[in-house]
Amino acid sequence: QVQLVESGGGLVQAGGSLRLSCVVSGSIAAILAMDWYRQAPEKQRDLVAHITSSGATNYADSVKGRFTISRDNAKNTVYLQMNSLKPEDTAVYYCKVLALERTTIFTYWGQGTQVTVSS
User: Fold this and answer.
1) What does the pLDDT look like over 26-52, one tens digit per residue?
2) Angle 105-110-114 from CA coordinates, rounded to 5°
């Protein structure tokens, strides 16, 4: 059984920083892409950052230059370093992974971690 456990959310003032982590555990042959999404109240869930198995990244325009996604393959962990936070970054942040189990690719989601940025 595959589990994603996120941590690192919290309350921070505008201009501050937070680092989110998402640890993947379970029977997985390989973790392919890893993503961070966010969902603000009454809004859709949007992609924030994406990283491939080789380390290539891309970001939503709203976070470029402020957020950095990275991964530690040995620890099956993906990170999101968030700097210069703004009140509009307030949302529940979710990690998502594309994982290979035997010959099938599955998508898994974490439970979400709340990030609140005060002005």
Assistant:
1) 888 889 999 999 999 999 999 999 999
2) 155
